[in-house]
Amino acid sequence: MFPDVHVTTPLIWTCTGILVVLDVILILLARRLVKRDHFQQMRWLLAIAGGVFFLLVWTSVLLWGWDWFYAYIFPGWARYLLPLLFGVGYTLLALAMGWLSLKLPGNPAINWCVLGGIEGLLSHIYAIYGLGAVSKPPIMQGVSQFSVLVFAVLEKACYWSIIMLFCELLRWLYRWYQQNKAGV
Q1: Where are the domains of the chain?
Q2: Which of 52, 58, 162, 180: CA 20 to 30 A from 85?
Q3: Cα(135)–Cα(120) distance, rounded to whole angstroms?
Q4: Angle at 21 between CA 145 and CA 10, to 5 degrees
Q5: Per residue in 13-29, pLDDT tens?
Q6: How many angstroms separate the CA atoms of 43 and 48, rounded?
Q7: Do the beta carbons of residue 157 and residue 116 sit within 8 Å?
Q8: CA 106 from chain center: how many Å?
């Protein structure tokens, strides 16, 4: 990474604005496509997909951003073990989110996305105030902590809604395959 490159608060707010539009589209799509009974059928698939998704995300970001970001907030061993730990952790978290999404009033697909945003807020509060994610890495110094927290809510809502819509697509393809297999 170039030493004079820095993330700025206006850049974070611009990305946040883009995520607002994307989240509205994804959540409206999820509201329309993912019915309560579909959501119940996908609970284990959501857990597995969530775990695999975040295993891949963390493997990628720790390989790509280690030298210019993550080395400042994690110990050296984390580069290799955190993806697996986060993969397992996010699998368990997805199971809990699926259960809670069905228990809360309203549409479980929307509940899932909201819970994903809450997870983003909580994980980034820890990253910022516990690990120093905004103060330690030179690329982040001077960025508004509040802007990062707002971005995190929308970022994680986006990730979790993509995971859910992907699972709905897999559920639909499986049903289609089963129906067409019977007709062959």
Answers
A1: 39-175
A2: 162
A3: 19
A4: 35
A5: 999 999 999 999 999 99
A6: 9
A7: yes
A8: 21
Please state the pTM of the whole predicted model. 0.92
pLDDT tens digits for 113-146?
Answer: 999 999 999 999 999 999 999 999 999 999 999 9
Q: Mean of the pLDDT values across residues 105-118?
A: 97
Q: Angle at which helices 145-183 and 9-33 pack, to 10 degrees?
A: 30
Give kind and range of the element (H or E) at residue 2.
none
As a whole number, mean pLDDT of residues 99-109 equals: 97
Distances (CA, A) of 143 to 21, 108, 175: 23, 35, 47
Residue 49 CA from chain centroid, whole number: 11
DSSP state of 182: H
User: Within its chain, how far is the Cα of 21 from the centroid?
Assistant: 16
Instruction: Count helices and strands (H / E) in the chain.
Output: 6, 0
- Identify whether the C-beta of residue 119 lies closer than 8 Å to the C-beta of residue 93: yes
Q: Where are the alpha helices (DSSP H) in 34-144?
A: 36-41, 43-65, 78-103, 108-125
